[in-house]
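A reminder before we start the practical. When you read a complex entry, don't treat the lines as separate problems. The point of joint prediction is that each chain is placed relative to the others, so the output describes one connected object in space. Small molecules and nucleic acid strands, if listed, are placed in the same frame. In the example below there are two entries. Take a minute to note the order of the lines before looking further.
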Amino acid sequence: AQKITQTQPGMFVQEKEAVTLDCTYDTSDQSYGLFWYKQPSSGEMIFLIYQGSYDEQNATEGRYSLNFQKARKSANLVISASQLGDSAMYFCAMREGGKTSYDKVIFGPGTSLSVIP
Amino acid sequence: NAGVTQTPKFQVLKTGQSMTLQCAQDMNHEYMSWYRQDPGMGLRLIHYSVGAGITDQGEVPNGYNVSRSTTEDFPLRLLSAAPSQTSVYFCASSYTAQGNGYTFGSGTRLTVV
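Here is the predicted structure of the whole assembly.
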């Protein structure tokens, strides 16, 4: 069963506007972590932000913030003041511990963001 | 500071051939993983390791073997290449503790004909 869902295959945003990329997840673990990564057209993978399941405050890193709603199992990425360089694929990922294995990190299918001048 | 180094960057294999994708990191990271990326499917975990001598299967392990004899190296072996293994392969590493994001290699684009 898919554990990370990103329902927006493609998104458009006007430059300087804010945009929210959706991510929902499924886990039975109490301790887990949520990540967002960016993949520009060059193909490299760039770590953006992390949220722990026990963190009481939403994570922020510069223009990136993570809207964490634990009861709804959602971890949306908010990018404020979009820039042309934000055009990329964005992946949500989760790190969870398995009952019989070490913790692993799995990724969602990604959302393609295009910033319009 | 090299980070995560993957070799080769490109490879073409014939069906049935075997090969090893190399991955090395110089950051003393305990945690290393291999992913494959296919269009529309994100990154799928093949195998991962939490330290030297310890490996485990991910979501799509069939057709691949790994070993971790040192902290630095985590090679991925394709036993008998199939066209379905045509993909971009990423190696990634991090410290084990929660909260540490991955450092990714630049990827290996593999085509099996």
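Discuss with your neighbour: Chain B touches chain A at residues 33, 35, 40-45, 48, 50, 54, 56-59, 88, 90, 92, 98-104, 106-107 (CB under 8 Å). What might explain this?
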